[in-house]
């Protein structure tokens, strides 16, 4: 009896040491978790999640200070990807943070712009070009649709427009399947 | 392949034949459209010429409403892509957004031309002697004439030629293997105008700097073989062989044809020019011959109008922009039980919502099908993982895995399982006992992958911009803080205080002296 | 004058084969084996087939209703019938009627529908059912009959029906009078008791190679299997791998010690190896996707069956082997992804 206990104990210690050595010897350097989370976020930098940008939100998620369902621009796809990465449960988007909307960009009405640069200072990705007393314009390909430029504008000359899709970039929508049709009934 | 075919193949190519994985033997249904000689339909009343007829971006219009145009005049330009030319002489009525027979089904800008019936050509620039012209000038002539691949992919021909030239091509393959059922336009072209094809082959070979040309045709096209080998141009050319390959769908796919002819596989993500091969459709070759020797831009093509839904199936020589309804009228109109109109063949064609859609460079066939032709015997069922789809896939993929991954949104493994390599031939769809619309799923999946790649690129860029902005703001903050610190330091330095006070008094006095009648403007000390 | 049309996805030639057609071909291929079984062992198996089919369709109907799925394509796809027939071929001909009922509940209800229905089952439903009733009711599941030629009392249709529905054998002496161990069972108990294999296999029960009656049944199933191969319903990898691995791995044992190991051919022709090779392990849903994967899957089934037969507690381990390999199938798939064009 004693022999078996001792023997198993020795074996356990031996295997434990072996596993520890293997963990060190075969270690793979991976990105820190924050980078991985940040890579899954849409980089809109809109602040709808409650954090000043995507990186602070990623850091909060990795510290488990924030939930994964707080990003409306990322939508369901981002939530599911984060759930996959972190092994947490995928939940629906938190309605307190906003709703998922199709991609939009903003357009400055040049006839009303007064050149105050308040929107330029607000844009988190420097997508607005202009200077004091000179025309401001949005570089539409860089605009992430965060809409942070709308509140500061004193003359309300910025409007939200839908982002266009080129025919070469158009793609077919998801086929409706018999099973989907049954469930939708 | 039968023994005699194998021997013929070896003689023509110099090596034994190979076969590609999978594929299907389908009923040809081509004879019904090959009974009559090919001719043009009467001139339609209005031509709708889309500005996007090739793979690439939409062309810029060169004309506007009210302009008169001549036949062959350029009306759309697009720098890296193929130009668009007017198919008739007449007047431009408008440039509007109309259905443009694009696989996406989306409408786009089209030039509406009303023909005046005179068919007056613009001044053409044929090349005087192509045999001594430089290959680059040949390619330029091809580009100016707006040539694009007429096999269906409408890749700009000059781009393919330049790429092939840059990478040292040794063999030009002319693809006359019309593997899809019903389509017979290339076959009729080869039977009626073999000389042009051979001429086009020689021109292309010279432009590429290649050694030899292989013209591939299906094994049942004996009339075509006779026509090609009997024509005088063939007798006068060297190193051009006509090769018969087995009629297994999709033999006419570029990658499959290359595998059969050479035994080599085009590397994944690569192009045939990686192997020193360039593949062109026979109709493109004929168009090249016309472009170089006659200066004629690409304004018309052979189109097969066929199917059980058309009274009199035949091939027509059609000007681009002709509405499909006009063609069907020319073929005796629809039959009673027509149910679907397809642009292209039954395997890869896309359905048309309305027959006002125009004929474009990619239109090789207009297929009218009856309800009996398209009615599926069973509703769609879940996948039973039988593996038939993988057995017939010419790209050696696992369609059932791809389908499951797309359905469940598993985007990362899709790259590994090669969704991008899918040629959308429809073989897997055809054998599926559960009748799952696999090709539709793959098209959706490909689109999603593309969109995701673009989105991740865009978000990466946004992140970089955000980070550099943050860095810039931080830097500005730091500089300001340093400046403040330095000022404070100087202010607190008691030793030099007296000197500084004296210096600033002197400056103020000198300023008030230089400004007559009054104090200095009260400008503060500048340190 | 323009005309509008309905659109639909390409290809515009619909497939000619359907799930029902595939299943019917499988049922057709089973006919020779069923006939052989009836010829050698009496009409009991036919009754079991009918019972199992009825219960299977009943549970399929119930589960479809419970899940809110349409009846139309699913009841007619004959997949439940195939499961029922395969199960009925694995159980003793005189098993009580409630065995089929419980088994089909597990096969259709649990192993098929609770995993998602047609095309979604991880485990082979017929084998799940068989294993469940085997472990739960070992007595009822081991009352095998001897071949009619060797039986003292042979039961006709009426007697078989009576036995199945009442549980009592209408013959003096009851169950003991009519049942006898199968060849594999006899072999196992004999070897465990220390007797010589050649001596054991002398008895008339063992027929020419694998068991009187059983060997012919195996041949008939093989015939059906070749039909399926010809019709391309199954691919050759799984049958070749199962039978090949059984032959290959029992050969060295027999060569080294012929006294305690039977002929490799005996392994193939007795028990359910041939049925498994062509009909059970080839179940596409629970098997592997790639051809190399199928070879590994089949080899695994063969080897595990041999291990259980030789060292395990059951005379025939095919069902357990199939279920264990079903578990391994997704992993095998991951590592045997076939090469794509151009890779």
Low-confidence stretches of chain A: 178-185
What count of helical segments of chain B does DSSP give?
17
How widely separated are the two ends of chain B? 94 Å
CATH class value of the largest domain in chain B:
Alpha Beta
Number of domains of chain B: 3
Q: What is the correct CATH architecture of the domain at 102-166 in chain A?
A: 2-Layer Sandwich
Strand content of chain A: 5-15%
Hey, roughly how much beta strand do the residues of chain B contain? 15-25%
Widest sheet, order of strands of chain A = 1-4
CATH topology-level name of the largest domain in chain B:
Rossmann fold
How far apart are the first and last residues' alpha carbons of chain A, in Å?
66 Å
Note the quaternary state here. heterotrimer
Largest interface (CB within 8 Å) is between: B-C, 72 and 48 residues
Instruction: Summarize the biggest pleated sheet of chain A.
Output: 2 strands, antiparallel
In this structure, how is the largest beta sheet of chain B organized? 5 strands, mixed
The class by helix and strand makeup of chain B works out as alpha/beta
Give the helix tally of chain A.
6
- CATH architecture identity of the largest domain in chain B: 3-Layer(aba) Sandwich
The name of the CATH topology of the domain at 102-166 in chain A is Alpha-Beta Plaits
Strand count of chain A: 4
List keywords for this structure.
heterotrimer; A: 185 residues; mainly alpha; 3-methyladenine DNA Glycosylase II, Chain A, domain 3; Alpha-Beta Plaits; two-stranded antiparallel ribbon; two-stranded antiparallel sheet; 6 helices; 4 strands; elongated; disordered C terminus; C: 343 residues; 62% helix; 0% strand; globular
Q: Can you describe what's shown?
A:
The complex is a heterotrimer of chains A (185), B (527) and C (343). By secondary structure, chain A is mainly alpha-helical. Helix content of chain A is 35%, strand content 8%. Chain A is built from six helices and four strands. Chain A has helices at residues 2-25, 33-40, 54-62, 75-86, 118-122, 178-184; strands spanning 104-108, 128-129, 137-138, 158-162. The longest helix of chain A has 24 residues, at 2-25. Chain A is elongated. Chain B has 527 residues and is an alpha/beta fold. Chain B folds into three domains: 1-33 and 137-295, Rossmann fold (3-Layer(aba) Sandwich), CATH 3.40.50; 314-371, no CATH class; 376-512, Fumarate Reductase Iron-sulfur Protein, Chain B, domain 2, CATH 1.10.1060. Chain B has 17 helices and 16 strands. Chain B has helices spanning 3-13, 135-144, 157-166, 185-192, 194-208, 222-230, 232-235, 254-262, 282-293, 324-330, 371-374, 388-392, 399-407, 411-416, 427-431, 438-492, 497-514; strands spanning 47-50, 60-61, 68-69, 74-77, 84-85, 90-99, 107-115, 171-175, 212-218, 240-245, 277-281, 300-306, 314-319, 338-343, 350-351, 365-370. Chain C has 343 residues and is mainly α. Chain C folds into two domains: 18-180, no CATH class; 181-211 and 235-335, no CATH class. Chain C is 62% helix and 0% strand. Chain C contains 17 helices and no strands. The longest helix of chain C has 24 residues, at 44-67. The radius of gyration of chain C is 21 Å and the shape is globular. Chain A binds chain B through residues 38, 41-45, 53-55, 77, 80, 124-127, 142, 144, 166-175, 177-179, and chain B through 52, 56-58, 102, 104, 106, 108, 379-382, 407, 409, 437, 440-441, 443-444, 446-448, 450-451, 454-455, 458-463, 465-470.
